[in-house]
Records
---
Amino acid sequence: MTETTPPEATDPADPRPPDEAPKAPDLSHVWVVAAEVEVTPKIAKTADYRGSFKATAGQRIDALEVYCKGCRRPYDEVTGQDCSAKIDNRHLIGGDQSTRAKRKIPVPPRNARVVPGGRIQRRGIEAYVGGVSRPPR
């Protein structure tokens, strides 16, 4: 008598061993500090060019703000909570894009008159000959 394993135990799409449980996602914050550092003119020039510099050993750095790199929220507001950017980052892009308010069309002045124009050909040789894709003379 041969013994067979159930199909869910040998799923080729799942690379984990069958006895290993899935790990919970890491929802912790990544803290960063906005700092103010006094530097010499030479280091300032290097930092401006490269975007980074090396601080000297023992140099005191004033922390302006401590916040999470992911959700961009201050330390004192979200300490002890999960990072909202790792859960859902819609708040960073202005909310849910499907329910976002449409752009307002500007209202023309009261004495303005809308005059319909002709159709403009923007592609092809007619557009080039018509002056759409080249500056007027």
Note: The chain is about 20% helix and 10% strand.
---
Amino acid sequence: MATRSPWTCILWDVDGTIVDASDGILRRLTIALEHFGKPKPTRAELAHWIGPPMYESFQANVGMSPEEAAEAVAFYRTLGKADGYTTGAKLFPGVGELIHEAHACGIPQATASSKPENQVVALMDHFDLAPCFTATVGSTPDERTLATKADIVAEALRRLASAGVDTSRPVLIGDRHHDVEGGAAHDVPVIFVGWGFSWPHESEGAQASVETVDRLRDLLLLTDADA
């Protein structure tokens, strides 16, 4: 039975949507915050950190100045490089299979992540997902030049279009309010997933909210029987 999609391309957030990197993030955050004399985070507080750019989070969550936040990001990134960007990371169950299924159906896909692009590339390679993506897009290493979700969504659409992809009906899959806001800036509807690190209210403004990969598949892939 033929499978198609109501979307011409799919954009994916990474942290909290495709990949659970919380163990490594918590460990590195603990080291970084203690280094700068700030209280270490609890696992429950990871929802404040995973998703937004770290440059913003160091300011919003522990009151750093922009200059201090830039220094903290640089320190945090040295820890990540020493760890290896894939250490402790795992795929959320079923998501990798859905990405492969969409690729097999010929649906162009791209990442649109606030995570530094070199780390996104490393993760997609590690989980054998790289061949599924026409464009792998993340932030610049300083998380300042290209960092907002709106800018990253724009860049993902630009790279897809440059590759000859029809971007007239894109959809963004994400797990934070930053995804909803970034999609809205470009009239890109968002499907909000509930297995990441969000608070309940963050799905407001999304076109749909799902709690399972099976439900997400229903919204991304249609068979002739669904017509």
Note: The mean pLDDT is 92.
---
Amino acid sequence: MDAAQQEATARARELQRNWYGEPLGALFRKLIDDLGLNQARLAAVLGLSAPMLSQLMSGQRAKIGNPAVVQRVQLLQELASQVADGSVSAAEATERMEEIKKSQGGSVLSNTTQTTSGSGAPTVKRVVREIQSLLRSVAAAGDIIDAADTLAPSHPELAEFLRVYGAGRTADAVAHYQSHQS
């Protein structure tokens, strides 16, 4: 790889860090490890070709162009954390990955207890994920943080909201949501 290619790859990874919170190579490797996938299976679940996934992982390509794929990445990240904390079994994760694969970028509905409470109302986590998804469909994480930094001096609560929901972890957003309910 020549110097120009190395520079382009470094730039792409920096853009990925701003847009997705980390380079996609690291993010995808975590998903592969946490969910027991290989690259071909991850590409299939996300709705990407294997070469496209490889280009994103290596930094040859910076951005995921399809918002539905971005949402599938977010859903897989949430699923991986649920597998890691033991709230979702490997078998359930396999079923959920099939649902994620079929999703067209809207809400992914599932029949697990994660989706709704006994009354059929959305859970706090579902509401939070919808807020996160909406914010992240409007702007990349780095842009949301920049906006929050701009707002912070005059509107600290709004800046916190943008940081927590637009670029933070789901667990932190759930805690924030719960702390602001009467």
Note: Residues 3-20 form the longest helix (18 residues).
---
Amino acid sequence: MRTAIFTLMRLGPSLAYAIASIFLLSIPLLDSHPSSESVWWLHMTILPVMREPIYLLLAVPGVGIWSAAVLLMLASVFGIRVALQPQRHYRSGFIHAHIALIATGLTMGRAAVAQAGLSGFAMPQLQRSDWSFLPLSYSPLGVVLLVSVCLACICCHLTVIKRIKSAP
């Protein structure tokens, strides 16, 4: 039972990467179906949580929406493997979880301001301003992601501490 709970806790970064890839896929969906209420709901639900990390990823030269989506899906699948075999991939799991924590923390910090205006990060091939009002403090998805990624980081730290204690 304890192992299953720790495995679920270590899946937090994979959830964050999967939600980021869903957000990326919602952009072309919104372009194809601009009048669809469900596509707008999907995009606007994930927008407060994944806006800043995705804009940073898309600002890298040569990274487009499709390559970023594939990269995030691969990171999510890799996170599942790391969560199922934590003793084998403890360093990779540590890095994987902390990158997700930095991305989630960046979002929480930037969205706490929640003001309209020019974004510090611009998506290539899209407009340079972001006029969306994003009250993240009321986003249940953002809170769930932050808590799940923090729990995964704690599990990684516990694994590293356990390895240090068991070393001769």
Note: Residues 30 and 39 are 6 Å apart (CA to CA).
